[in-house]
Design a protein that fits this description.
The protein is an alpha/beta fold. It contains eleven helices and twelve strands. The longest helix has 19 residues. The protein starts with a helix and ends with a strand.
Length: about 280
């Protein structure tokens, strides 16, 4: 009887050990569909690599992201993203955000994996996403028709003007902080220039990077210029909260700073890097 009992106990122990070791061969970088908790379930970087692509949220914003004559995306941020994705071993896929204000929701819904589009770093944005190290210096400037340059030469001079801004942008926040209420939010920064051109707005407040690229001789807004600066700021790349992809991109960014890749891009697109 004791011998039989011993055999039964031994068999039960073997079954117990088998059950405990049943997950020993599970790849810790792979999440399962039945809800198992694995490393990949918590790793945004593993999720992106498992897809083989990084979906990058952008808008049409020269010189950061804009279509070339063949309709392909180009620009500083486009080339920067392509260089980072090459080091990550994934393909960049550019996704045009219909509503810039919804970028955090798009991140959380995993429609996109990051926002890489000359995004100004603000405390408000930090509440909803992780943001990379800053990489480009920017400023918000007044843009108007060249004939109105003297009229709108200072920040105070636009107090009673009709001001076009991109909805949800740093510019919209700045003019609100100044107490200016005659403000027209539009979908994209480029649309602010259309507002001024049509006469619907007196001035636009946009990033100096766009102002340099889209106004003056040789552009579609040859009779436009930019005057006073409202503020200086820095651009960063937005990721989901707690994303380890942000940490990895920061490492690669440092490498591209050190090897001169970003210096060459900054010179090409006439931008100033954060050093």
């Amino acid at each position: 009887m004791k011998k039989i009992l011993a055999l039964v106990l031994a068999a039960l122990m073997m079954l117990s050990l088998a059950a405990c070791g049943g997950n020993a061969d599970v790849d810790p970088t792979t999440a399962t569909a039945n809800g198992d908790t694995t490393a990949a379930a918590d790793s945004d970087l593993a999720y992106i690599k498992s897809k083989g692509k990084m979906v990058i949220g952008i808008t049409d914003y020269a010189p950061m992201n804009y279509p070339d004559e063949n309709g392909a995306w180009t620009g500083f941020d486009t080339e920067f993203a392509e260089a980072v994705c090459a080091k990550l071993g994934v393909t960049p896929e550019f996704f045009v955000l219909a509503d810039w204000d919804a970028k955090t929701n798009e991140l959380n819904a995993k429609t996109i994996d990051c926002v890489w589009n000359g995004m100004t770093i603000t405390d408000d944005l930090k509440d909803g996403m992780d943001i990379s190290d800053p990489y480009v210096i920017n400023a918000q400037v007044i843009v108007c028709k060249a004939d109105d340059a003297e009229k709108y030469a200072t920040v105070e001079s636009i107090k009673d003007a009709t001001i076009a801004v991109e909805g949800g942008s740093a510019a919209e926040k700045l003019v609100a902080e100044l107490g200016y209420t005659n403000v027209t939010p539009v979908t994209a920064q480029s649309d602010t220039l259309l507002e001024v051109k049509s006469g619907a707005a007196d001035v636009a407040v946009i990033d100096i990077t766009m102002a340099k690229a889209m106004t003056g001789e040789g552009t579609s807004y040859a009779d436009f210029t930019y005057t006073a600066s409202l503020s200086e700021e820095e651009y960063g790349i937005g990721f989901r909260k707690g994303s380890d992809a942000c940490t990895e991109v920061n490492k690669i960014m440092a490498e591209l700073m050190a090897d001169g890749t970003l210096d060459a891009l900054a010179e090409k697109y006439e931008l100033t890097l954060v050093k």
